Amino acid sequence: xxxxxxxxxxxxxxxxxxxxxxxxxxxxxxxxxxxxxxxxxxxxxxxxxxxxxxxxxxxxxxxxxxxxxxxxxxxxxxxxxxxxxxxxxxxxxxxxxxxxxxxxxxxxxxxxxxxxxxxxxxxxxxxxxxxxxxxxxxxxxxxxxxxxxxxxxxxxxxxxxxxxxxxxxxxxxxxxxxxxxxxxxxxxxxxxxxxxxxxxxxxxxxxxxxxxxxxxxxxxxxxxxxxxxxxxxxxxxxxxxxxxxxxxxxxxxxxxxxxxxxxxxxxxxxxxxxxxxxxxxxxxxxxxxxxxxxxxxxxxxxxxxxxxxxxxxxxxxxxxxxxxxxxxxxxxxxxxxxxxxxxxxxxxxxxxxxxxxxxxxxxxxxxxxxxxxxxxxxxxxxxxxxxxxxxxxxxxxxxx
Amino acid sequence: xxxxxxxxxxxxxxxxxxxxxxxxxxxxxxxxxxxxxxxxxxxxxxxxxxxxxxxxxxxxxxxxxxxxxxxxxxxxxxxxxxxxxxxxxxxxxxxxxxxxxxxxxxxxxxxxxxxxxxxxxxxxxxxxxxxxxxxxxxxxxxxxxxxxxxxxxxxxxxxxxxxxxxxxxxxxxxxxxxxxxxxxxxxxxxxxxxxxxxxxxxxxxxxxxxxxxxxxxxxxxxxxxxxxxxxxxxxxxxxxxxxxxxxxxxxxxxxxxxxxxxxxxxxxxxxxxxxxxxxxxxxxxxxxxxxxxxxxxxxxxxxxxxxxxxxxxxxxxxxxxxxxxxxxxxxxxxxxxxxxxxxxxxxxxxxxxxxxxxxxxxxxxxxxxxxxxxxxxxxxxxxxxxxxxxxxxxxxxxxxxx
Lengths: 400, 402
Fold this sequence. Notes:
The complex is a heterodimer. By secondary structure, chain A is an alpha/beta fold.
């Protein structure tokens, strides 16, 4: 809701400009992450490793390969995560996940830094330009459509779990050669809860928090017969049991992870995409709530990875990819207000990281080579054996 | 409509001083690219309601533009002229509604991957402008004070972590009468150096007192305005076809009188306060965000010589719909979370202060209210060290300003 980058055109401001180019700053951000990780988690450098990835030897297992993607809607900055002062907020990622992972320190997003449009870009491999605040489908085919069409997979094999109303169109593009009927099923846990409680949300308000990217505009939670059908026929969960369990949870992302785990048990999709959103409370300007959300997200990522190990359908054949959709503004950029937003387009807001772990992934390796967020879909295609024909990104060679 | 076709009568809808200013600088405006000019007009159209520091900056910027030859204008704005805008943008009424134009231009630049080029052009322009404008000496060293942690009995985590490298940490502060001592010193500075809007007291809760020598902004005193705004927002959100962008545009048009502010008030300050609520994100629901944003905007716009901000506990997090409905007159508070919010806000206070002229001579003090912890940044004090000296807040301020 505050100003965009235009204020810096006024002589009344005094932006402090670095002498480094945005590319150099992004590179340094990546280098810092690498150094932090090397110190904190004893990670090796990817450049020093030779030989082929385990994926090369795993072709025969491709049919059983499962991929889970977790995106953070609302990035977390280094000083609250990987930098020494932030590591207290991510004990699970640092102590449990990163040592098992290949970690990419320099993932840049050159597109529009709004959560829906950025997540759509992640899912299509193209920098989409759709209206961030409209519930419209992506223009280009999604990873779910490539996956299902190329590999002839049923609708039950690709699912999206997303917390926000606008994300209900993320599963399927408007591309004519893909599109209708070839996408993922999308479950919006808040919708489910809204439907289950029939508008009486007294005990569940904490799970129905809204899209913080527009904190002044909080669309009403809706819900209906379709969602309740999903609950009972697909998740095999009675309304009573669902509501009873929901009462034990503390945030929308906890609800999303609960639904995702239920989906893993009941449907075992090969491609599961989960969008977390609690961190975006940062837009309200309350730093303590932002940090609380980072800690919660850290815990939930580890919880989901633990579920992968415990589910027979997933254990040993699942690759988990975790990445924020983008970063947040740097404290020093006068066009922004630090952690609160991601509106300046500065290197800190465009540069983030990605963690890959599980089947076919080298453990304990850090890669500094720059990749783009639109490289995700072609990389998943390479892992699972489909072609992301219209994606503009390139497969990440360290995962091939 | 392009800038070269501008006519004086197109500024007829501007407030009197803004209109006079625009007409006087018409020749310069006609030479500027469309990617730049509406951003400038967005400032000019508000001229009548700007703080003195802002008016001075606009005057100097326009004087500089008018002094440039056509060749120099081409050179100064070359990067802006390379940006490609749509014909739809050209057809918008950017003269009468420059802010709306800028908002749509921003969306267009994002979508067409030109935002980075625009940001570079804007930063280069700002740097170049500052390099040619004279810097006037300040009458007194700038001073920022952030009082944090009201209502917190004890806190075990380290405070001021972001600021410690830049100043001296004091762990044996005598807290007695601390707020009173600080306010008294701020008032004394205001009396010694009377500058319009030059000395501010911002309170995120109930003000300790209203001081006539200071510019006072108080969250609790603005409760009727905030309440009216939240009611307005609830009504707007319920309207068919309403979306976040429409709501933002509606809010941007609100005036103090629309929110029930007294017409006999200070027109400049009243507009500023309305903008805090209509342009800020989270200021409507969290007092800590309000205090932080007010501090940032006061520093950016009014460039005060002194700014004391005191943070108060904000309400505990609830669903956004519930927060916006403002139904509970006595919401549950979150003092510990508010301390964390305010600690970060104090860091931002210092950063924003350092963006202003005279930064190398400015001082900054942050104090955990009622407790013995403080951090002081001053040109004469060492950085990244701890002091065991026992002194009261007046003593700390003496160090800050000596």
